[in-house]
Amino acid sequence: MTKSNLPENRLENRFPEKEPLLTKREATVEANRCLYCVDAPCIDSCPTSIDIPEFIRRIATENREGSAKTILESNILGYSCAQVCPTEVLCESTCVFNEMDEEPIRIGELQRYATEPAIENDVQFFEAGEPTGKRVALIGAGPASLSCAHRLRRYGHETTIFEAKSYPGGLNTDGVAPYKLHAHQSLKEIDYVRQIGGIDIEYNTAVGKDVTLEELEEDFDAIFIGAGLGPDNWLDIPGTDLDGVWGAVDLIAKMKVEEGYELPDDVHTACVVGGGNTAIDVVRELRGLGVDDVMLVYRRDEASMSGYEHEWEGAKKEGARGVWFSQPVEIVGDDHARALRCRKMRPASDDPDDRSLELVDGSDFDIDCDLVVVAIGQSKLGDLFADVDGVELDWGKIVIDAETGRTGNTKYFAGGDCVSGGKEVVDAVEEGKVAARSIHALLTDDAEASADEESTETAPSPVT
Ligand SMILES: Cc1cc2nc3c(=O)[nH]c(=O)nc-3n(C[C@H](O)[C@H](O)[C@H](O)COP(=O)(O)OP(=O)(O)OC[C@H]3O[C@@H](n4cnc5c(N)ncnc54)[C@H](O)[C@@H]3O)c2cc1C
Ligand code: SF4
User: Fold this and answer.
1) 423 alpha carbon to ligand 2 midpoint, in Å?
2) N or C: which end of the chain has fewer CB within 10 A?
3) Smallest-distance ligand from the CA of 180
4) Is there an atom of ligand 1 within 6 Å of 307 CB?
5) Mutate to test the pocket of ligand 2, among 67, 77, 89, 111 (most ligand atoms within 8 A of CB)
6) What is the C-alpha separation between 443 and 159, in angstroms, rounded?
7) 282 in ligand 1 pocket by Cβ < 6 Å?
């Protein structure tokens, strides 16, 4: 599936954009607020180290294309990152204006202003390097592999991505909330990334099933693992097999990419189990689709949620509510979920450092609902690599050297969620980039390449 054959009638199309694109005047005014700090702390808080003052300066001097080039040099998925990055806790969080009690520079919105026309009009800044004859296999077509593959093409290596699904982009296409990024925007960006040429994608090809690791080892000079995470974790309680019980990532993917998918008409009350960002996203999505009463059911209190505070505040403004210190013990229904039965929890001791909880006997209560969404994380896919010599696993996550993306097997590199256990798109992009540098060093015996962060000697210069 590409942008051209993505179904039109997708549920996510009901969501308007969170922020419309800045006008030229708004962008110029905002860019001119920037102080262009010499030691720009915002650069350090961007995982891909985009030269933020430079790209903003280029907007201020009406060099929009130059601005896009600065961004994409560091982050080839800079267009989607502009919309999906939690800027409140990344680049914008360290803007010096925060210390002056003023609004930080709207870096994400300026980044989108710069990159959107380049992506939409296919303005290319990079070209493939001289062919090296080396071949790299990449597992999964998510942000980590796409970033890695693009960088490898700039070095001149051949790349083939093996993707289990029928479309690319991983969670950037079928996971991030539609009010941040629509699937067609992600697919358009991937078309753009692939215009460098030579990023082949084999769809519907699950590594470990349709092609084995041994085959990849034989056919390729290096392997990058960007397989992300597995299916939704599941609650081990009675009733999870009833209709109306969904895993969060599964449900979101249906909303985002499935043709004609609709929530059943009789869904009026929903319980979303979890306290992380995915749980909050689902809550906001269900409210956005008109579900009357949406509750986030969490076993701790509001302050202990792992999801971003700004996102939860947004959800509450949209009418969501929280049910705290509540542990689901059963989903009650006939053939369809009708209620979520919970038991109250409480801290096990008065020690504020002790986070353990205990169930309160006899405190069961039912929350009537027509839909239960389980948002308690995703499983790890590490098992697939358990037999690969030298590849170490830590609770299902692939262990790498963070400076190089290398695993304990010289042929295997990894990055993204399969390593971190779940972070942001921008982290996956950075880890793909880092691994590409090390793969290049391996394939060319160039130790300098992996040591030098942004070596333009090893990555061919952008087209000017
Ligand atoms: C619901 C949700 C919302 C999110 N919202 C945001 C957000 O707003 N902002 C943000 O920055 N981040 C967000 N994230 C996190 C972000 O999407 C991930 O960090 C990022 O996509 C990770 O990239 P990746 O390439 O490592 O993995 P993925 O994006 O998961 O891509 C992995 C790819 O590998 C494929 N694959 C897996 N196993 C195999 C196999 N054996 N063979 C072949 N292919 C395989 C998968 O099908 C998938 O396409 C969200 C995550 C979730 C779950
Ligand atoms: S990529 Fe994300 S974190 Fe980095 S500058 Fe852009 S919006 Fe900020």
Assistant:
1) 14
2) C
3) 1
4) no
5) 111
6) 13
7) no
Q: Is any ligand 1 atom within 6 A of the Cβ of residue 178?
A: no
Strand pairing category for 245-247 and 371-374 = parallel
Pocket of ligand 1 contains residue 170 by CB under 6 Å: yes
Segments making up each domain of the chain, as ranges:
3-120, 135-164+205-230+379-451, 245-374
Residue with tokens 């993306």: 405
The helix or strand, by DSSP H or E, that contains position 413, with its residue range, turns out to be strand 412-414
Q: Which CATH class is domain 3-120?
A: mainly alpha
Ligand 2, atom 8: nearest CA belongs to which residue? 91
> What are the residues facing 321 on neighbouring strands?
295
Q: Give yes or no for a contact between 76 and 154, defined as CB atoms under 8 angstroms apart.
A: no
Residuewise pLDDT in 10s, the chain (464 residues): 666 678 889 999 999 877 889 999 999 999 999 999 999 999 999 999 999 999 999 999 999 999 999 999 999 999 999 999 999 999 999 999 999 999 999 999 999 999 999 999 999 999 999 999 999 999 999 999 999 999 999 999 999 999 999 999 999 999 999 999 999 999 999 999 999 999 999 999 999 999 999 999 999 999 999 999 999 999 999 999 999 999 999 999 999 999 999 998 889 999 999 999 999 999 999 999 999 999 999 999 999 999 999 999 999 999 999 999 999 999 999 999 999 999 999 999 988 888 899 999 999 999 999 999 999 999 999 899 999 999 999 999 999 999 999 999 999 999 999 999 999 999 999 999 999 999 999 999 865 555 444 444 345 545 53
**One-letter identity of residue 3:** K
Give me 439's structure tokens: 């793969």
CATH of 135-164+205-230+379-451, one of 3.40.50.2300, 1.10.10.10, 3.40.50.300, 3.50.50.60: 3.50.50.60
**pTM for this entry:** 0.95
The span from the CA of 26 to the CA of 176, in Å, is 27
The C-alpha atoms of residue 415 and residue 398 are separated, in whole angstroms, by 8
- Comparing C-alpha atoms, which of 355, 133, 350, 169 is closest to residue 253? 169
Cα 267 to ligand 2 centre (Å): 37
Output the residue whose Cα is nearest ligand 1's atom 12: 424
Q: State the ligand closest to the CA atom of 383.
A: 1
CA of residue 257 to ligand 2 center, whole Å: 26
